[in-house]
Amino acid sequence: MNMGQCLRRVGLLVLCASLLSGGAAALARDSTSSIAPGMSPRTDGQTVVWQAENPGQSFDIYALTVGATSGTLIAGGPSDQFSPDVSGDRVVWVEGDPLTNAFDIKGISLSTKSTFTVAATAASETAPAISGNWVVWVSSGPDSSGLWQSTLLARDLSTSDAPITLDVVPYNTSTGSPGIFRPAIDGDRVVWIDATQESMHSVHWTLMARQLSDTSPTQITEGYFDNAGPGAYLGPLQRPGYDLQGQLLVYSTNFNVYLLNFASGQTTQLAEASDSSWHPGQNPTINGRYVFWQDYSYSGDAIGLGNIARGSLIRTDLVGYDLQTAAEFPATTNTGTNTNPEVHSGELVYTRTDTSNPASSEIHAVPV
Q: Which of 5, 62, 65, 257 has the least C-beta neighbours within 10 A?
């Protein structure tokens, strides 16, 4: 496949090499051929959005759409803009001041360049995700008695209706501070993680799901990971990851990757990390047919991975899995630290960082 074919197929400025060899070039940030630094990429299959640091100032939001020859700055300024997401014509992100923890959810129409506010309250509004007209996000702040709580909210941008509450995680003096991980939404279904610090170095989490029309959420599974103490090296790698496409949910727990079909109720294991099999997976993403996840099989076992993880960054490969053929294939191997994959329609995006240079993160996009 030559570059002309690639550009016609993807509609993005990506200097494409083979997906199987792991050779995707980073997106261009401007009209020059320079490589764009950035992180936290998201895509709806037609547009890629990401955040990039404006050195010495703040994070800004960039977007690259079909037919464009370069990335475009869509949100910048003295405030920080980060954690973007995109669906169709709309991009949403977090905007605020990290020093005061005052964050709001903002958005923009890509066609009209008109901005809008999704949520701006006294609470800290973070972690947005968008699908169609619906935006979901996490609102954190004191309740009526002054105790901290995290609330998962959803708002229909096509109306002026107030947000609806999907879940509330209150502060518990016996177990510790609450938290809700960034939700995923597709259509009218939302999935997210409730997390509680149960001890000095143990976080208990539950994977929750809810359709917007439901009256209460459903627990899918639960588990633990360490964020301090002896397990701190592997703990961040054992954090659960999840993604949603239609009736299909993929999620990881303790390096195992699962696929749940909401329609049939069937759960299938796609990757396993056990005494008999060291095939670890983390942060899976799905577009309906293909699943991608972070892979550490090269490390040999959990002890080897733990020793490698004592450094600041570790090699992280990406693998793909074809649900139609039950075949696994390499996406990018031994190319640095490849994290936060997201696939939508025919586009896979992720962040690549040189393991010896943590400030070198780039946004990559390749056709599936």
A: 5
